Amino acid sequence: MKSLSNTKLGLLVLWPTFWTGFPLKLVISLLLLAGGLHPWEGTGLKFLLLLSIPIDMWALGLCARTVLLERLHVEPQPGFGVRLWWQWALFSILYLPLLYYIVGAVVATAQSLSASIIEFLKQNVVTIHIAEQITLDLVLWGSVATLVLLLLLGGWFFGLGALVQRQVRVAVHKDGSFQDMVSRWDSLRVPPDQGLLLTAFTGGGVVLSLIFWGLLPVTTPHPHEEYEYTYVKKVERPVHPKEILKKTKKVLAKAKSVIEELEKKKKEEKKSKKTGGDVKISPKANQGKKSPPSLKSKGV
Amino acid sequence: MNWKPDTVNQATAFEKVVDFIDERVGLKTVQAKMLNEPVPGGSRWAYAFGSCLLFIFILQAVTGILLMFYYVPSTDHAYASTQYILHEVDYGWFLLSYHFWGSSAMVVMVFAHMSQVFLWGAYKRPRELIWLVGLALFGIVMAFGFTGYLLPWDQRAFWATTVGVEIMDKTPVIGDFLSRFLKGGPTPGQMTISRFFVIHVMILPATLMGLASLHLFLFRKAGPAGPFRGSPEEIKAKTDYFFPRQIWKDIIAMASVFLIVASLAFIEPVELLEKATPDPGDYHPEPEWYFLFLFQLLRLKIFGGEFGQFLGTIAIPGAFMELLAALPFIDRHPNRDIFKRPVALVSWIVVMLGILIFTVSAILNREFLD
Fold first, then answer.
1. CA A212 – CA A27 distance, rounded (Å)
2. What's the predicted TM-score (pTM) here?
3. How far is the alpha carbon of A179 from chain B, nearest alpha carbon, in Å?
4. What structural domains does chain B harbor?
5. What is the pLDDT of residues B70-81, one digit of tens each?
6. B176 touches chain A (CB under 8 A)
7. Which of A38, A56, A111, B30 has the greatest number of CB atoms lying within 10 Å of its CB?
8. How confident is the model over B169-180, as pLDDT tens digits?
């Protein structure tokens, strides 16, 4: 049976696993963003982590199975993906916070050491300008932190590799030519019915696009403070039927009194005409009124 | 006698349409030629970068055309029309933000594609011309970013262009002409915005389409290079046609690119600064993020003074591009395995680390400016 180191095996499994699950997690993240939730905090994060569990189970099982067939010529036992996932999840829950803590401590120490070195150099050896200082500082603490991070990531890969090796010991050895192995792991990844796959993929794409379009805000969620909208929505006044009726009654009563007054005036004018009194027309009465344009002058 | 329909020979309406078109344009031949290309060593995710670039360009063209329905390329209206797109056009904020992040995605993808070709040794004989046309396409992508950056006409746009044109001015012989032609006056103004707009929406897309077609034609002529490692038996066993495996990988990669760009449009949507004025005020001029490493490099003491500026802006980047162009003619050894080409591997790591370190330095440098 062929063999691989734990670290290499862990990396070989983890790299494709990440990229297999990544597009699906991206879909979830984008839908959360369109719905106004941040996938990196609060409810959004909980939702994303929850949905990531079945995705990771599937991706880890598929990718590890492929690597074992291609590289070690073994077929793992049924239920391999789920078993490997929970063991790896347990290991990661313990290991990743430790990694985070160690890297954080290393970064803080390296930054303070780097600042001391630069200060010493500036005071005793050479003048260092701002741009040079920034880059030197970054390289000094960044290289130490990167090295520690890579070493610790190597430990994480080693852990996963060791878990996979445990499954390899109970796996079934598969004989066959390289061509056989290739077609065996290839058929794991590519379903034989291409038409069905294409239809499912297109259908899924259409449904997700519709959901995305439905959630997408029509106008910007981040308006500029000083932007003045050209379209200002009219303020709709609330309707109070009783007040409207009251007002209408008042208007009608006023109109009635005006009409009555006018009629009274008319009667008085008629009376004065009959008795021979003069009616004076104020010159202001016609001021500001334009006479209608003559149709003839327009050539009609 | 009972008549029964001949179900075996009866073609569906769709098949009839396909046959009709095939008879006239040779559809099936084109389809076979497109999909049945053998991929030595089988499909790989690393081969998806080129397809992703084409996909991003198509989406940039679509979003760009939609934005042009509202954008006005004049100093009086460029800022206001961009703000109008962001605030009042239905989904305008998303289209503009997608277009903005799409340009960054294109630059990242060009770097990824060029790195893959370099590390795989796929620029070597007989693929020298593919590499050269690819380099020209790289220049076009950068020019897209530079010309598009001015169009919103805010402080960021104005000052990034001012700095960019000043850098261009330092080019020997043609620098003065180029900067005067692009600016069309002593400071960026109406002529600048008109010229940048025409270059951005007409000249560059037409050039890119022509060069991309040539790139693809040359690629199909030479065929894919395949993996740089593995015995002939292994490569033969894994060799496959372009359809279905590589097509599926390309589709997944393109979908992922769309999802990432769309997510970035949500996380960091385009927000304009104040309208462009010849007075920078509190604003510290800065180019787009992919030029930041060069900008930071120019802040180093070694690149101070007239000669230092020429060295940092023109001589070193120019020499680097010339070296890349000459690469297939210098590196003529047939071995493509990157682990047996230590100079190439170390050079690539140094360049990538340099870009990363100086880009981060430029970001950290902002604290010292405020």
1. 10
2. 0.83
3. 5
4. 41-287 (1.20.810.10)
5. 999 999 999 999
6. no
7. A56
8. 888 888 889 999
